[in-house]
Design goal:
The chain is of the alpha+beta class. It folds into 3 domains: 115 residues, Phosphorylase Kinase, domain 1 (2-Layer Sandwich); 189 residues, no CATH class; 68 residues. The protein is elongated, with a radius of gyration of 36 Å. Bound molecules: adenosine-5'-diphosphate (ADP) and magnesium ion. Adenosine-5'-diphosphate (ADP) binds next to strand 2, strand 3 and strand 5.
Length: 423
């Protein structure tokens, strides 16, 4: 009934008559994708070598991220787990449906799930025929996405309307969970700050919190980025028809790349996902106003963040973490002490130290060989002199000479002993 680039979806019946959708991966698709990725790596390395002005975008890293996402999409068992996680997130929400996975009929390349009835959410005529309230549907969809981003921290990263069904009852059915993003608690908190600053038209706040999400290194031009961000935000805050927060966010991430500032890949996915979410809203309901929808949600999420219940829960978990740590501390200390006693604790050296040690070792070895050779030659020379009947050298008897040589070597040896081996 549907064909994507990676798979085909078929309608089927289980033996007990249950109607299911079976998503089957195309044969050989993994091989083809791996070959394509291989080519992309090759091209990106060429680009890095021959087009230095592209280096700021780090082409190879982009290919690596692309490869990670795409290869993950090929694992339908993982997609099934994502579906289950979304089901758990939305189990209280009567307006959002997620197909159930039939694990006994699912493998890495075949995903069997409940069949959804409805029309694709990009089929405007179909929805019209079903008499669906599109404004309400837009709001259900966008709310569900804000919830994924800001509360659950686990989100569908490809929310275009073709992946969703509108059901005859006017609710929304989500499909296609191959690509997902994660936002941990800290990222969500910072995002909330960023979005709240956007809602309040607080340019400095936006910039400050946005930079907290960034990965900054010696190639990043933070000053340039701040200036660019202020230009983008002026356009958003002070125009009669301001573009949405989703657009601001997406443009800010892109502008970061131009200034050598990267963002974690999940954040880039988030940028893409909110932009697509806005697109879904606009398609369903052309007067849809992302900013207006965003405002109450951000306020609500902010209040939820500071709710005494949540704070108490976080104190509780933190407290338990600390108590667990304390409880285990004596055992761990004892283990470390035993290891120390047995001399099992290794010491980390850096390459510079090792190099120094090696040089000292080589020097000592050279000295030892030189000393041996010198001694041997001295003994042999004195022996030869004796055999040839010479009793004097430089007017000194050979025994005196030998004693003098011994004295010199002894003094030299003592001075070597006293020299500190290493700095
Ligand atoms: N559980 C389902 N019930 C009914 N139709 C489905 C179901 N899952 C997917 N589909 C249909 O198959 C299409 C392709 O599935 P999807 O998971 O989006 O595959 P792809 O990853 O190739 O885009 C969807 O757009 C939808 O129309
Ligand atoms: Mg799809």
């Amino acid at each position: 009934m549907a064909a994507g680039s990676l798979s085909q979806v078929h309608r089927a019946l289980l033996i007990d008559g249950t109607e299911v959708a079976v998503k089957v991966q195309r044969p050989e698709i993994e091989k083809i994708i791996r070959q394509d990725i291989h080519l992309l790596y090759y091209l990106s390395r060429l680009a890095e070598r021959f087009i230095p002005e592209w280096n700021i975008y780090r082409p190879t890293r982009i290919v690596k991220e692309f490869a990670d996402w795409t290869l993950r999409e090929l694992d339908f068992e993982a997609e099934g787990h994502h579906a289950e996680r979304f089901r758990a997130i939305f189990k209280e929400n009567p307006n959002i449906h997620i197909p159930r996975v039939y694990w006994e009929w699912t493998t890495k390349r075949v995903l069997t799930m409940t069949f959804s009835h409805g029309v694709k959410a990009d089929d405007l005529a179909g929805m019209e025929a079903l008499g669906i309230d599109r404004k309400r549907l837009a709001s259900i969809g966008v709310d569900a996405f804000f919830e994924q981003f800001l509360t659950a921290g686990f989100f569908h990263a490809d929310p275009h309307p073709g992946n969703f069904f509108a059901t005859p009852e006017g609710s929304l059915c989500l499909h296609d969970f191959g690509m997902v993003g994660y936002l941990d608690e800290e990222a969500r908190r910072i995002l909330l700050h960023v979005l709240l600053a956007f809602v309040k038209k607080d340019m400095e706040g936006f910039t400050k919190h946005f930079l907290r999400l960034a990965l900054i290194d010696e190639r990043s031009d933070v000053g340039g980025f701040k200036k660019d961000l202020s230009n983008i935000l002026s356009e958003f805050f002070y125009s009669p028809h301001p573009p949405s927060a989703a657009r601001a966010f997406f443009r800010a991430i892109n502008q970061g790349a131009r200034n050598g500032i990267r963002f974690p890949s999940d954040l880039a996915l988030f940028g893409k996902a909110i932009l697509t979410t806005e697109g879904m809203g606009l398609l369903l309901y052309p007067e849809f106003d992302f900013n207006r929808e965003l405002e109450p949600f951000v306020q609500k999420a902010w209040q939820a963040y500071w709710s005494p219940r949540r704070l108490l829960r976080s104190v509780e978990t933190d407290l338990f973490d600390r108590l667990e740590l304390l409880k285990g501390l004596p055992d761990r200390v004892e283990k470390v002490l035993i290891k120390l006693e047995r001399g099992e604790i290794g010491v980390k050296l850096d390459a510079g130290d090792l190099h120094g040690i090696k040089q000292e070792f080589d020097r000592q070895n050279d000295l030892r060989i030189l000393g041996l050779v010198l001694t041997a030659i001295s003994v042999v020379t004195l022996g030869l002199f004796y055999l040839e009947g010479k009793r004097l050298l430089f007017g000194l008897s050979l025994s005196h000479l030998s004693a003098a040589l011994w004295g010199v070597l002894f003094v030299w040896f003592l001075s070597r002993l006293r020299q500190a081996p290493l700095p």
